[in-house]
Amino acid sequence: MRLRLFRNATQRLQYAKHELLLDPYFAPKHSRPSFTGRSPNPLVDLPCTPEEIMAGAELLIVSHLHSDHYDPEAQRLLPKDLPVVCQPGDEETLRSHGFRQVTPLADALEWRGITLTRTAGQHGTGPTELADMGSVSGFVFQAPGEPTVYWAGDTILYEPVRKVIEKFRPDVIITHSSGAMWKGSGPIVMDAAQTLEVCRIAPESRVVAIHLDSLDHGEVSRTDLRDQARAAGIPDERLLIPADGETLDLHS
Question: Which of 6, 22, 128, 220 is a plausible cystine mate for 10, CB 3.0–4.6 Å?
């Protein structure tokens, strides 16, 4: 398995000899509104062109429809014959953008030898945040000869996430770890402390922290997270924090 991070949650997974594109966010630097008044978003440019990100993709997975995970540029540029997997409730929006093969995933499906299992997420801490953020999903990837991967998505660490880790015992856990805030009552994705807790409760897993240094409501940087992990005694090889454009080989 190979993971290439582009920016925020936009990734390519080379998994079971197939190419998966996750949460495409193609907006140029500073072309989207600010979330906090600090800066227009995104904070940085993509490390390559959208065309390079899309090239050879066989399946698109959209965890939810927030604009930093599926934006107007992605809507415009992505080939509409690309198969799409999404959470239930998002399929009509995706079809309205021209995608012809959209599969809402309630539980699990098999696609070309890969088992995809949708998991729950909680995109916030307080009732106002949860009302604003709406439904989000993560996904577990399984295939013979490949590591089990749990992409938690835009969620805080809460009991259902712990249950997924306990049930699937993933070899790789991908966390969104910027500690992003919305209206101030608590993080809407994992912060540094929650990411380190994932490392503790999944001692046999490698944790890959992404969704960092790309949006103006993030409160945790890559440097912050690495410093806190080292202070907590978590080795660099257990908590991987890729740079934009970096590729990780994550074999079993």
Answer: 6
Secondary structure E strands in 59-197: 59-62, 84-86, 102-104, 108-111, 114-120, 137-142, 149-153, 172-176
Query: Angle of helix 192-201 relative to helix 222-231, nearest 10 degrees?
Result: 50
CA gyration radius, the chain: 17
CA dist., res. 240 & res. 173, Å (int): 10
DSSP string, 160-187: HHHHHHHHH--SEEEEE-S--BSTTSSB
8 touches 211 (CB < 8 A): yes
Give the start-to-end residue ranges of the domains of the chain: 2-242
Would you state the pLDDT for residue 183? 79
pLDDT given for residue 252 in this prediction? 63
- Residue 110 CA, distance from chain mean position: 20
With respect to CATH, is domain 2-242 assigned 3.60.15.10? yes
Q: pLDDT-derived band of residue 21, with 50, 70 and 90 as boundaries?
A: very high
Residue 186 pLDDT: 83
Distance, CA of 140 to CA of 142 (rounded, Å): 7
Contacts of 36 (CB under 8 A, 6+ apart): 181, 216, 217
**pTM value?**
0.97
List own/partner pairs for 218-221 with CB under 8 A and 24 or more apart: 218/178, 218/179, 218/180, 219/178, 219/179, 219/180, 219/181, 219/187, 219/191, 220/177, 220/178, 220/179, 220/191, 220/192
